[in-house]
Amino acid sequence: MRCLVTGAAGFIGSHLCQALLAQGDEVVGLDAFIPYYPRAVKEANLAAFRAHPAFTFHELDLRRDDLAAALDGVEVIYHIAAMPGLLASWQQFDVYMTCNVQATQRLLRAAVESGGVRQFIHASTSSIYGSHVLGDEQTTPRPVSPYGITKLAGEHLVRVYHEQFGLPTSILRYFSVYGPRQRPEMGYYLFIEAIRQGQPLTVFGSGDQLRGNTYVGDIVRATLLAHQRFEPGSVYNIGGAEEVSANQVIALLEEIIGRRADVRHGPTRPGEQSRALADMTQARERLGFTPQTTLRAGLEAQVAWQLALSRD
Ligand SMILES: NC(=O)c1ccc[n+]([C@@H]2O[C@H](COP(=O)([O-])OP(=O)(O)OC[C@H]3O[C@@H](n4cnc5c(N)ncnc54)[C@H](O)[C@@H]3O)[C@@H](O)[C@H]2O)c1
Hints:
With 312 residues, the chain is of the alpha/beta class. It has helices at 11-22, 39-47, 68-71, 93-114, 146-165, 187-197, 216-228, 246-257, 281-287, 295-311, and strands at 2-6, 26-31, 55-59, 76-79, 119-125, 132-133, 169-174, 177-178, 200-204, 210-211, 214-215, 234-238, 244-245, 262-266, 275-276. The chain has two domains: 2-178 and 213-241 and 282-287, NAD(P)-binding Rossmann-like Domain (Rossmann fold); 187-210 and 242-276 and 293-311, UDP-galactose 4-epimerase, domain 1 (Alpha-Beta Complex), CATH 3.90.25. The strands form four sheets. A seven-stranded parallel β-sheet has the order 3-2-1-4-5-7-12, with helices on both faces. The site of nicotinamide-adenine-dinucleotide (NAD) has 30 residues, from helix 1, helix 4 and strand 5.
């Protein structure tokens, strides 16, 4: 099976490429190295599998480059590329709009034109729902950040290409993801670096915001299940099992790293979710997915990865 992974050099995309290669697929990776965080970090993600004989890589920008060569012979597209993170979306709206909306539309059109795409699996986010997320996939989306708005627009494009052009699509709404290769501006990455180095760390708001964080290995497994049990037009919440607050995560990290955190508090940031736990009835019943990695095991893996990075 020949598949295309967009965002192949990113946090989630690179793990997905490795899992697909491990199960014997032929993987075409695509990434534009958008400078949201350093290219060197993304090159290091890619280095883990770039030399694999079943992997080819195209440095292309979905917003403007010709996509025909990357789509040649591709049957399954995993569209993971996007501008992630909500804070910067207040300042850099044009990059979010073009990478999350225009890029998605160009890829959808190229998929229809190629004629050979049997599955288009699209990475979306719990941020399309809004600040307090507890319901199932039928909950009315009410995003509270430009990031969430552009990702919701991307979802609508996916739906429209399914309904109007018969493209077989599936949308996966990932809930906050963590684990090795987490993006360097994400909360847990910053918490671990601060505790490790004995630096102060900032918690925005009270730290009581609740999240059902998802280990990246579980995200990848759910994505592979969405392919194996593919249902055209489907939408799934994909989240973790345990609901925890930032304060509980910090306490757990103190235990794992063996050092106290110097916690400072800052104001709540605009667009932040107060509570986000996935209702995963659909993913459980139709995909057979349940998250398997405990928060402790997942954080231990991320800490080990960051400690190894600091020694390099
Ligand atoms: N990390 C999370 O907690 C999380 C949670 C929910 C949803 N998601 C979604 O998962 C996906 C992956 O997120 P991530 O955390 O791995 O982010 P990431 O930034 O690490 O990876 C995204 C990759 O996409 C690439 N990209 C962006 N725009 C592109 C374009 N126009 N052309 C080609 N490549 C482009 C970037 O260069 C980057 O390497 C995104 O769709 C994001 O919205 C992530």
